[in-house]
Amino acid sequence: MYGSVFLTGATGFVGQAVLDKLISTGCNEVKVLVRNPGKLKVDSKYVTIIEGEILKVNTYEKCLNGIDTVIHLIGIIREYYAEGVTFDNLHYAATKNLVDISLKAGVQKFIYISFNGARSDAVSSYHGTKYLAEQYLISSGLNYTILRPSIIYGPEDSFINMLGRIMKKNPCFFP
Question: Is 0.70 topped by the overall pTM?
Fold first, then answer.
């Protein structure tokens, strides 16, 4: 149904849901790039775990050969400068690298999750770097889909569940 898929961000809230859906709907090959394989919740013969880092192209470059679709979900909400975890690195540079490798490998479809509010005159670096990544993908010539959600929530998300816990403890809110 999907052919072969290369998935980034699979240990995150959205990535885990996407991976589960790919498996349950019959995707017969999913290569998943992860820094820490122990964080990945999956038990499927159709999943190949690629231990690597998105900014270290040599850790996954060859894995895109024969891939039909790239689903790129990596994103951060907080920067850690000392570790090189910045919006520019993880949103823009990582996406640029993955787009370039996808072109070389002959990937047929590239799906990118951006964010609502990504635009050229964005006030925040978060939105600005998401916009730059979008523009690079758009100009690449790849067949692409860009998703721009505002907030994603569900049973195991961190934001809405944290908000719910706060509300339950605060006397101003009623359960």
Answer: yes
